[in-house]
Amino acid sequence: MSDQGSKILIIDDELETVQSIVSYLKKEGFEVTVAYDRLEAARLLKRTSYDIIFLDWVLEREIGLEVLNALRNEFPTLDIVVLSEGASLEMAVQAATHGAYDIIKKVRDDKGNRWLVPPRLPIVIHNLLARRQEHELVTQQMDEKYHMIGESEAMRRLREEIRLVGPSDYTVLICGESGTGKELVAHNIHRHSPRRDAPFVPVNCSALTPTLLESELFGIDKHVATQVDQRKGKFELAHKGTLFLDEIGDLSYEAQAKLLRVLEDKTVTRVGGQREIQVDVRVIAATNRDMDAMIRDSSFREDLRYRLSYRITCPPLREHNEDIRPIAEHLLAQACRELHKKPITLDAEALEALTSFSWPGNVRQLKNVLQWATVRVDGTITADLLRRNEDLRSSLTPTQNYMGMTLKEAVRVFERDLISRVLNETTSNREAAQRLGMDEGNFSKKLKDLQLR
């Protein structure tokens, strides 16, 4: 039953009542420690990570409920199981309401002389360990999903910013161009915070009209209209967790004022309601717009901007193009898994083509291009294939660095690029030759020389 090496802490000031439990757990392979009060338990918890906590409901100097609340406040991710000689339904409800996973009744033998292992103990431990394994699997999947790729100086600085601000409760404003990964950064801040096991609730502000935004953020009261159901808003759904407001620069001035009030008062009032509802939410916002310019032209509130106290900027891909290779390899592996295809690689010229463009759509655009290419090949993606991509042809600006090349090499690179573009924009060699002012025979020879056909 045990997960070898799992650590269990028992908080009980009457050791004889839990001695059978301690012996049983040690026999099952658990590492067991006993603390006699909350203070000793807190000292141990600061030094050691325990998998399960067993807490006696009646301690000599403290009430179990008070200890439970104190532990949940200081160590919110703990799995706590209550032990009690007089366990009742009322006590179970009270314990569960305050964050206990379960309650187990201590039992004696028939004569009342000896404390026994509670029959439910193995079941509760099994369920807790299964839940923990499931949580670890989900955590691993989330780590893979939100892994930030790249070892450039720009990416190292970004990860360091996340590491520094994550454990705080500061509101954060993430700035950057479209496609630079602002939501990815928001997820990583959340996952580095004490709120990591609570909800992460995203809201796309640009997709909501001013009338819909208020009900979406603050909820709807049951009295607002006969045909409308009561529902919680995003702030309530994110209680104890993180609310991510994407494209906050698209909020109307009126909506900004209401958001500012929530950030200041920590309360929301549902549409049509009167009651103020307390919310404990960390807000992370993102924008691809110039906030300072918006403040100057009075389209964004300066006081709200300063409520978003910590600012992080996501670098555009063109400023860390040394990361294009690992990012591209990751995106290709992801696309192959989704399409159930064998691994696909980039040849040297294709990789050079990817790194020689200034990506205005950033990583999102790179992902789209690689997905486009993946469905068209098995094995290797070539530069010729990439040059046929509409996105590359219409949206990307070549930034080929000719320094270090001979004149002959530079002319060849330029000719390949220009002729590839013309070929993509025309329907025949004859039309392409005419566009370039060449006769068809010489054009065919040039294609062969440049290995374009």
UniProtKB/TrEMBL annotation:
Q: Which residues form the Response regulatory domain?
A: 7-121
**Residues modified as 4-aspartylphosphate:** D56
What are the UniProt keywords, alphabetically?
Answer: ATP-binding, DNA-binding, Nucleotide-binding, Phosphoprotein, Transcription, Transcription regulation
Q: Output the SUPFAM superfamilies linked to this UniProt entry.
A: CheY-like (SSF52172), Homeodomain-like (SSF46689), P-loop containing nucleoside triphosphate hydrolases (SSF52540)
Kindly state a single biological-process term from the GO annotations of this entry.
Answer: regulation of DNA-templated transcription
Q: Which positions carry the signal peptide feature in this UniProt record?
A: none
The UniProt record lists the Sigma-54 factor interaction domain at 148-375
Q: Does the keyword DNA-binding apply?
A: yes
Task: Name the domain of life this protein comes from.
Answer: Bacteria
Listed GO molecular functions?
ATP binding; DNA binding
Q: Which InterPro entries match?
A: AAA+_ATPase, AAA_lid_NorR, CheY-like_superfamily, Homeodomain-like_sf, P-loop_NTPase, Sig_transdc_resp-reg_receiver, Sigma_54_int, Sigma_54_int_dom_ATP-bd_1
Q: Does the keyword Nucleotide-binding apply?
A: yes
Q: Which PANTHER family match?
A: TRANSCRIPTIONAL REGULATORY PROTEIN
Annotated protein name in UniProt: Sigma-54-dependent Fis family transcriptional regulator
Recorded source organism is Candidatus Abyssobacteria bacterium SURF_17
